[in-house]
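Box 3.1 A note on notation
Throughout this textbook, protein chains are presented in two layers. The first layer is the amino acid sequence; the second is a token string describing backbone geometry. Keep the layers aligned when reading.
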Amino acid sequence: MCLVAVGDLLPNLAAVQVERVEANGNLLRITARTRDDTPAACPGCGQASDWVHSRYVRHVADEAVGGRSVVVDLSVRRLYCENSACEKTTFVEQVAGLTRRYQRRTPALQKVVDAVAVALAGSAGARLLGVLHHVLSWASVLNCLMRITAPARSAPRVLGIDEFALRKGHRYATTLIDAETGERVEVLPDRKTQTVIAWLKAHPGIEVVCRDGAGGFAQATTDADPTIVQVYDRWHLWHGLAEAVLKEVGAHSACWAKAGPPLREGTRAQTTRERWQQVHQLLDAGVGLLECSRRLDLSLNTVKRYARRSEPEHMVRAPQYRPTLVDPYRDHLRRRRSEDPAVPVTHLLREIKELGYTGSANLLVRYITQGRVEADHAALSPRRVARLLLTDPAHLREDKLLLRDQLTGACSEMTALAASVRDFATLLTPDEANAVALTGWIAQVRAADLPFMHSYATGLERDRAAVDAALTLPWHNGRTEGVNNKIKLIKRQTYGRAGHPLLRQRILLS
């Protein structure tokens, strides 16, 4: 049997004399004292001294051992400083790895407390430390967190900037990171232009700024240093395109929905056509958009939407049906009704019940009456059609590709829309020739009857320099978006009550 000394189990006690170890319930108490023959350095001047003034006992908490909290009762010396020029008359010796000035925790335990404070903070951190056999209040955990020195980072060459909501729709803060490494650089208390300008001027050396389409950040960067290259984030370019595509798809529902369930010719469709006639009659008579909205008692945006469409059919939306229990048996019903158009519904109900149908007869009758069985494809929403257009064809199954081709061939506008999406997707791979190709793409979009895509192209031209940089340079704002996503978790851990100093500390240290 090999006996192991306490100093071997707890290396931080190797420099002191252990006198007694007592285990009492959930507490392990270690009594120790510093050695008398070891000089100690004065913290003021650094000169070593062994001139003892007195001794006193410090109670230092250490990491738990065997499920027990550990307290070290350490007798330490107070020494005289032998340097007459030093401002300190006496000082207390410190044991490396065991004590620090004004601390009642060992460096090892303090490291654990700091890690828990950064990860959880507040009450959650205090609860976890209780499981680790160290009792600490939530306020003490926050104090430990705020005492940690945030890493000092110089201004990066490529800066990523984005905002995040402190209270959505009311208050926002700004995240600044190194777009090359992903390191957090700073968290500004708001998103005001002047705040960003002040920070950029105080940190020269930034060459590139990656941002989204926020005009405030663009103006702040230009005002702070016009030589900084601004890069529009490519994800936001694609997201903006997706929103425009969804609106265009919805506007051409009457075209691509013909192969699906029949359009509803009800009161809503009739009202839509009547309003289109009223708006265009007033416009043909020379009445302005604002006056049209007043005369028809419609909002200005509604009048603009009707004015954009050249035909009233483009305003009619495709029917949107929710998934039903009949959907899995649609192919069986369609085959049976094509073989025998006069087959009774009761026979169809019995057949699909044998296949596992659990719905009612009324649901089946309504499904057939709506024309959803004879349609070439199941009912589609504009969002699903837009998703088919925006998905890489290499990631679609063969049946989805056939459906996509059927939908895009419904009208010339849908064909032009699909071609525009396909061509723009190739521009998202950075290349020097993309700036010229973008000019051709914008001209191609403007040549088609796609008003929502026209608006998107206008937005690109308004911020053309940053868009060209996004399509030709390798930088992007993806890491900033990732940091913002993690900030949401940090905010929710504190129930959204953390102030800017605490939130900034956790963001920079996490």
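The mean pLDDT is 88. The longest strand covers residues 52-65.
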